[in-house]
Design brief:
Helices cover 8% and strands 33% of the residues. The protein is mostly beta strands. This is DMSO/TMAO reductase YedYZ molybdopterin-dependent catalytic subunit.
Length: 197
């Protein structure tokens, strides 16, 4: 069952910046979730990357905070048709996590606390395209928006920016995640309006 906050409905407002097709501008930050919000305390949070060799690379909250973080200003676009422009995030680029990870796989499955999954090409997480974000607009990321840490992949529809991120598992094939198994597009480019399969 989806949970929707106020601000979910809206109308297209005039904007100087073009929006992807079919999107409307919102000033709110609507919430859409597939289930209840997990309560993940920072002291229990851990992120891991698992490769085809069975090797696991792990980081806890202290390790995340010790890494070089970036401030990211970006637009976000939800498959449910809202767009929010110029959002401010702070997080660690995925490139830093993959620096010592060796894999021949071309895809990953993102796993979240609470059981949510989504599939992504590995190339869409590297070269400055994605972050593990833990702040939004200068404040700790609220649980309802994916805190303590969410994946941020702003060039794709926002369901690909998995909330409550727990791990990435590399895959040779593009196996669909939760929403993709339920009819959402395997890739999700908002500029191509890749909403559904």
């Amino acid at each position: 069952m989806a949970v929707v906050s106020r601000g979910f409905g809206g109308r297209r407002e005039p904007t100087e910046k073009p929006l992807p097709p079919g999107q409307f501008l919102t000033e709110d930050f609507p919430v859409l979730s597939a289930g209840p919000t997990p309560n993940v305390d920072e002291s229990r949070w851990e992120f891991s990357i698992h490769t085809e060799t069975g090797e696991a690379h792990r980081w806890d909250w202290a390790a995340l905070q010790a890494m070089d973080a970036e401030d990211v200003s970006t637009d976000i676009h939800c498959v449910t048709r809202w767009s929010k422009l110029g959002t401010g995030w702070r997080g660690v680029p995925l490139d830093a996590f993959f620096a010592d990870v060796e894999t021949e796989d071309d895809f990953v499955m993102a796993h979240s606390y609470g059981g949510y999954t989504t599939n992504l090409p590995l190339d869409d997480l590297l070269d400055g395209k994605a972050w593990l974000a833990y702040e939004f607009e200068g404040e700790p990321l609220a649980p309802v928006h994916g805190g303590p840490v969410r994946l941020l992949v702003p060039h794709l529809y926002f369901w690909k920016s998995a909330k409550w991120i727990r791990s990435l598992v590399t895959q040779a094939d593009d196996v669909p995640g939760f929403w993709e198994q339920n009819g959402y597009h395997a890739y999700g480019d908002p500029w191509l309006e890749q909403r559904y399969s």
